[in-house]
Design brief:
Elements (H helix, E strand, L loop, with lengths): L7 H10 L7 H22 L1 H8 L25 H23 L11 H16 L9 H16 L2 H8 L3 H20 L11 H11 L1
Catalytic activity: glycerol(in) = glycerol(out); H2O(in) = H2O(out)
Keywords: Cell membrane, Glycoprotein, Membrane, Repeat, Transmembrane, Transmembrane helix, Transport
Membrane topology: Multi-pass membrane protein
């Protein structure tokens, strides 16, 4: 992967695949959640005066002066519950497929040094193409901690009950989408990849050791 795990769904998937030791899973997820929580707190601190002026101190999740969606995702009024779940699921499938393609050394991976740029373009494309329905959480680590923060900071328990108790969708759908994305990639691409050929130096070293 890219060396920095920012998505709990992807971290879980990599542990299940054996690409990341399970002993690292708690530390990675705690770091992700703590960073996201502190990020939300920082934004709140910087823009507190603007938020207070806009809402007159009445922080709400819905209504004409709703501001909770600044921090976490909420479904659009027109989207059905199954439609919202499918949107998050499919968006995460596309994310995983893109991530694996960008970093797959056996399948013409992105040029060294361009992976971060390609990842940014990938997330931007998913947001522009699939973000209208749900705000494209595609990452439990970026949605739940800010939601908890807003519950503490004045928005209250509504952050968990709004959208017909929407809060669990950004946790479950990305996790399932991540697993489905890896399965699709394994079945249709990775299992058909050719082994990475040995370099000349590796071959020479093998010959020397054999002799």
């Amino acid at each position: 992967f890219a060396g920095a795990h920012l998505n709990a769904a992807i971290t879980l998937t990599y542990c299940l695949l054996g690409n990341l030791p399970w002993r690292k899973f708690p530390a990675y997820v705690i770091g992700q959640f703590l960073g996201s929580f502190l990020g939300a707190a920082t934004v709140f601190g910087i823009y507190y005066d603007a938020l207070y002026d806009y809402t007159k101190g009445n922080f709400t999740v819905t209504g004409p002066t709703a501001t909770a969606s600044i921090f976490s995702t909420y479904p659009a009024p027109y989207i059905s519950f199954p439609g919202a779940f499918f949107t998050e699921f499919l968006a995460t499938v596309m994310l995983l497929l893109g991530v694996l393609i960008i970093h797959d050394e056996k399948n013409n991976a992105a040029l060294k040094g361009t992976q971060a740029l390609m990842m940014g373009i990938l997330v931007l494309g998913i947001g522009m193409g699939m973000g209208m329905n749900t705000g494209y959480a595609i990452n439990p680590s970026r949605d739940l901690p800010p939601r908890v923060f807003t519950a503490i900071a004045g928005w209250g328990i509504d952050v968990f009950t709004a959208g017909d108790h929407w809060w669990w969708i950004p946790l479950a759908a990305p996790t399932l989408g991540s697993l489905a994305g890896v399965l699709i990639y394994k079945l249709f691409i990775d299992f058909h990849n050719q082994p990475i050929p040995e370099t000349r130096n590796e071959k020479e070293q093998t010959v020397v050791e054999t002799c």
